[in-house]
Amino acid sequence: MSRPVRVLLCDDHEVFAEALASLLNTDGLEVVDVVGRVADVVPAAIARRPDVVLMDYELPDGDGVSACRAIKAVVPETKVVLLTSNADEDVLVAAIEAGASGFVTKHKPAAEVMAAIRAAAGGEMLVSSDMLARLLPRMNRQDRKGAGYDLTIREMEVLELLAEGTPNHELAARMGISRNTVRNHVQNLLTKLGVHSRLEAVALATREGLLRTRR
Predict the structure, then answer these.
(1) Helix (H) or strand (E) holding 102
(2) C-alpha dihedral over 71, 106, 115, 123, to 10 degrees?
(3) Phi, psi for residue 77 in degrees, rounded to 5
(4) Using CA atoms, how far apart are residues 118 and 194, in angstroms rounded to an integer?
(5) Is residue 213 a part of any domain in this protein?
(6) Could you tell me if residue 214 is inside a domain?
(7) Which residues pair with 10 in a beta bridge?
(8) What is the pLDDT of residues 78-129, one digit of tens each?
(9) Do the Cβ atoms of 132 and 203 come closer than 8 Å?
(10) Is residue 101 part of a domain?
(11) Are residues 106 and 139 in the same domain?
(12) Are β-strands 62-63 and 58-59 bridged in parallel, bridged antiparallel, or unpaired?
């Protein structure tokens, strides 16, 4: 049996956090800690090494985006999912650039929140293709033409499809390869770009001018 996905929950609303933790402690998920401040979530992430941090955006001593950036600086392998009350595009752009794997809104049913956590743990992006298409043009572009990354033609093809929000099974179908081969291509791409998730790869590629002009 595979081990459960280890989750660190950060939300300053104690009753909500306790109820959510109780719901999450089931079906392959394990809440390893619950904290309520930016000052607490970074040390907890270092100590607990969770697979995923599910983090509220509005915290009493900061915000989820700055906390995400701090977590990724010290435990880059940990995925961060932003828990928001609304899908504010400015917040989502900032979260992507900080290294978040995506977001889930608080009004979603518990089953969808759990599915999002599992998807993040598996490296999937938690942003719809329509939302991603709206967000990418707003990211900070450096126009560096991708110098220094030495990506193959196949890896560039994968990167373009990731930027469209394409999940693994569709990547495999469109490229005519197996899902295992897709995972290998994605992992090689992440290694070359020096990132830890698909969404981070897309954010970096946008900043560095690696992607072709969006249609």
Answers:
(1) strand 102-105
(2) -30
(3) -75, -20
(4) 23
(5) no
(6) no
(7) 35, 55
(8) 999 998 887 778 888 888 888 888 888 888 888 888 988 998 888 887 876 6
(9) no
(10) yes
(11) no
(12) antiparallel
